[in-house]
């Protein structure tokens, strides 16, 4: 409570709607009850709808009859009235007069931006200028410009600020740094031929969705009136400049005032405003700008008349009718008034102050974190003042975290651990490559090198060559609370400010480079399930697979399969081809990089089963799928830096569908220690019965007992009976171990992965158990059909 009192002492005038009809606590208790156990911090991705808002929408749709607005019935007239009112609400939100602006409904902000790009009057004399901090949906406009022979270039804009952090955006206080000019048809126009009769477009976001930095609306008049001055007389500054603002993010708290700033185009997304509806956006367009757009396609609703068998069409005169192809999403449009009702009640200025107070509080706390050696923990990506009165700061806090030695924690590690703590956030570059490269200091060479190394959007390659490839983004909404921010702060403190010392004192865990040994347990991982689209099904994607139990009778050579979702037991003869009906092949990638710089790719030749068997498994997992069995395989290699294919080679024995290794060993003593920690955590937090786990939760094929907990971490090789194994290092655990069975259903919790993360985390991996490969050594003369027997002694050799 002392922490909150301190927070309220500094931010109490801004936080929680002190002068509103409801306090923030009342809003959360009555309108967001579903957030009881969740900390939602991805409002820049999609904010949340109010439960009262959805009740009002449901009541509206269940008590009203809305017809197609292109019809003439009474229900259609009702819809037309609702749409007309919705357009006016959108204009009012941005203080835009209908005499000067129109509201065109689109399928989202991206569609609004695309509409501008594909219909803008580009010519070889035009210029498309855009800030580095732009979403891919804005960068995509560049394709239209370049294809029409226009020039395009990015700019960095630096605005002077006053003592309160507010921008002083006069033409003399704005510095524009131009990036290289891009052209595709240079032969069509020379720089000296550029004239003032071309139409140019300048695009920028009202708020950067990577850093949260806001751009001043004064840029609108500066570019329109003084482009030649700020571009220092560049020939590309000539012509008539028009301005496009991507307000998808910034409009939620600071909509542009179009009565003051004559923006030509403003793109809006409604789910970014109030959570619902999705799939609906708007383009607010100046009437004189609309007349310049050159639309080619026509559709239902956009024409006054057309003749099918001759080249004749007469388009409608209205701006909205001219650009809204087909039937608009009228039921979604009818629902936005219930979202605007919330905004009008709370007011955008109060929401802005509330959100900024949380963002400023979080930034200050994160910047104060220090490791034991005095090194800072957190790097923030913005250039704004830490004063709550700053007009340049939005709802976003973008960051990365460092270890005491200065190396980076991967952002995916942060995201995965946050999820275990019930915290929802976003990581990566957020579809904003320019801001990502700018703030992370990534050169063109870095970006291309990362791409050649296999890094693409949404993958797990979060640190390459010692540099982050993205960031962690926290973003607040109008319903966010101090408690949300505090839980994230506590999460960072407990998970990243100090490296868990208990695990560091244990054995060092090692990783080897041979991911696909050629020997495994008999019949182990010879089968897999494929969807009808060719996707390999795993328990991560289809948890119902974990309900399937198997048993092989080696004497009768029968595989028995059972599932609570199927009435009968399925039996398949493992030494018979009677069930098989054809072959096919596919490729699978290995999970580890080999020492020679190659990733392994294995080409599998598999046998397929008859429909009756496929139907049984389809019923078991709840989706259509096919069972296949490995019958032959080849190693292939692909270079890690450019993806070029190498040669294939046959292997002496079949490589089954192993993930990282064919053997996973778990120690009962290690599981017992984990259970003690789970019990202690349960008692500490008073959260009911302990989340006891047994060794089989980790899906091992070797379980040992005796010795000390985690002694296996340091084993280099081991002998079980007369069979030798080499350790490949620790097994990196994932959310799969959090699934458990209850009354024939698959349930999910945060344990035991959350507890393991608190003391078994090394370089972004949560390690438990060890991976092994069979090591024949110099025992080639022995029977290759070695047996492992329950109760045999295990002899280990540590490093």
Key features of this structure:
799 residues, alpha+beta, Aspartate Aminotransferase, domain 2, 21 helices, globular
Query: How many distinct beta strands?
Result: 35
Report the C-alpha radius of gyration, rounded.
31 Å
- Average pLDDT works out at 86
Span of the ends, CA to CA: 50 Å
CATH top level assignment of the largest domain: Alpha Beta
Q: How much helix, percentage-wise, in residues? A: 25-40%
List the strand order in the largest sheet: 2-9-8-7-6-3-4-5
The CATH architecture of the largest domain can be given as: 3-Layer(aba) Sandwich
What composes the largest sheet? 8 strands, mixed
Principal-axis shape: globular
Q: Helix segment count?
A: 21
Summarize this, please?
The protein has 21 helices and 35 strands.
Structure description:
The chain is of the alpha+beta class and 799 residues long. It folds into four domains: 68-160 and 173-184 and 196-346, 3-Layer(aba) Sandwich (Aspartate Aminotransferase, domain 2), CATH 3.40.640.10; 351-496, Aspartate Aminotransferase, domain 1 (Alpha-Beta Complex); 526-654, no CATH class; 661-798, no CATH class. It is built from 21 helices and 35 strands. The strands form nine sheets. Strands 2-9-8-7-6-3-4-5 form an eight-stranded mixed β-sheet, with helices on both faces. Helix 4 crosses helix 12 (330-346). It is globular and about 85 Å long. The model is unreliable at 500-518, 591-598 and 638-654 (pLDDT under 50).
């Amino acid at each position: 409570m002392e922490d909150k009192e301190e927070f309220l002492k500094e931010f109490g005038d801004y936080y929680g709607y002190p002068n509103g009809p409801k306090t923030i606590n009342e809003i959360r208790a009555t309108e967001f009850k579903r957030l009881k156990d969740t900390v939602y911090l991805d409002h820049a991705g999609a904010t949340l709808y109010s439960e009262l808002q959805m009740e009002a929408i449901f009541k509206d749709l269940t008590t009203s009859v809305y017809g197609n607005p292109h019809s003439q019935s009474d229900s259609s007239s009702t819809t037309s009235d609702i749409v007309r009112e919705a357009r006016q609400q959108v204009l009012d939100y941005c203080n835009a007069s209908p005499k000067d602006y129109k509201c065109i409904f689109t399928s989202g902000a991206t569609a609004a931006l695309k509409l501008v790009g594909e219909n803008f009057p580009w010519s070889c004399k035009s210029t498309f200028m855009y800030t580095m901090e732009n979403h891919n949906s804005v960068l995509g406009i560049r394709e239209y410009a370049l294809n029409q022979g226009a020039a395009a270039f990015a700019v960095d804009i630096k605005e002077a600020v006053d003592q309160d952090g507010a921008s002083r955006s006069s033409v003399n206080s704005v510095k524009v740094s131009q990036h290289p000019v891009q052209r595709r048809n240079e032969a069509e126009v020379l720089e000296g031929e550029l004239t003032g009769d071309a139409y140019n477009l300048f695009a920028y976001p009202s708020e950067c969705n990577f850093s949260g930095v806001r751009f001043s609306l004064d840029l609108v008049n500066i570019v329109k009136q003084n482009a030649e001055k700020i571009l220092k007389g560049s020939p590309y500054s000539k012509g008539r400049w028009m301005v496009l603002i991507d307000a998808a993010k910034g409009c939620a708290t600071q909509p542009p005032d179009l009565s003051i700033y004559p923006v030509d185009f403003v793109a809006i997304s409604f789910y970014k405003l109030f959570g619902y509806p999705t799939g609906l956006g708007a383009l607010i367009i100046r009437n004189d700008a609309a007349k310049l757009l050159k639309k080619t396609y026509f559709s239902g609703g956009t024409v006054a008349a057309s003749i099918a068998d001759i080249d004749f069409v007469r388009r409608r005169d209205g701006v909205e009718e001219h650009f809204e192809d087909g039937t608009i999403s009228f039921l979604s449009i009818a629902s936005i008034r219930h979202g605007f009702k919330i905004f009008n009640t709370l007011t955008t200025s109060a929401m802005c102050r509330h959100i900024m107070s949380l963002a400023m509080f979080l930034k200050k706390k994160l910047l104060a974190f220090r490791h034991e050696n005095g090194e800072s923990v957190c790097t923030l990506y913005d250039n704004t003042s830490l004063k709550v009165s700053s007009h340049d700061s939005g709802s976003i806090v973008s960051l990365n975290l460092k270890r005491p030695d200065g190396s980076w924690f991967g952002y995916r590690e942060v995201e995965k651990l946050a999820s275990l703590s019930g915290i929802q956030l976003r990581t990566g570059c957020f579809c904003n490559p320019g801001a990502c490269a700018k703030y992370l200091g990534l050169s063109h060479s870095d970006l291309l090198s990362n791409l050649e190394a296999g890094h693409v959007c949404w993958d797990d390659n979060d640190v390459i060559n010692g540099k982050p490839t993205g960031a962690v983004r926290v973003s607040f909404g109008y319903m966010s609370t101090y408690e949300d921010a505090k839980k994230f702060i506590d999460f960072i403190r407990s998970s990243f400010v100090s490296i868990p010392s208990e695990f560091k004192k244990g054995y060092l865990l090692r990783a080897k480079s041979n991911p696909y040994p050629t020997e495994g347990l008999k019949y182990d991982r010879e089968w897999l399930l494929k969807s009808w689209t060719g996707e390999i099904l795993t328990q991560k994607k289809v948890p119902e697979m974990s309900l399937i139990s198997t048993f092989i009778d080696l004497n009768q050579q029968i595989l028995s399969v059972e599932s609570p979702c199927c009435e009968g037991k399925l039996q398949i003869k493992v030494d018979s081809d009677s069930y098989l009906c054809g072959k096919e092949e596919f490729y699978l990638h290995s999970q580890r990089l080999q020492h020679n710089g190659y990733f392994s790719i294995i080409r599998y030749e598999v046998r397929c089963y008859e429909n009756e068997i496929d139907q049984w498994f389809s019923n078991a997992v709840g989706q259509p799928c096919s069972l296949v069995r490995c019958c032959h395989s080849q190693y292939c290699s692909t270079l890690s830096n450019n993806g070029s294919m190498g040669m294939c080679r046959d292997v002496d024995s079949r490589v089954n569908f192993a993930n990282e290794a064919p053997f996973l060993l778990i120690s009962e003593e290690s599981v017992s220690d984990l259970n003690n920690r789970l019990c202690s955590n349960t008692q500490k937090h008073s959260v009911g019965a302990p989340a006891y786990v047994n060794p089989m939760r980790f899906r091992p094929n070797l379980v040992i007992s005796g010795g000390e907990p985690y002694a296996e971490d340091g084993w280099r090789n081991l002998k079980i009976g007369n069979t030798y194994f080499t350790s490949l290092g620790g097994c990196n655990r994932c959310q799969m171990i959090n699934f458990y069975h209850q009354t024939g259903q698959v349930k999910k919790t945060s344990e035991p992965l959350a507890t393991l993360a608190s003391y078994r985390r090394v370089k972004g991996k949560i390690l438990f158990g060890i991976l092994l490969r069979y090591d024949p050594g110099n025992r080639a003369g022995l029977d290759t059909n070695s047996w492992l027997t329950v109760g045999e002694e295990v002899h280990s050799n540590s490093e």
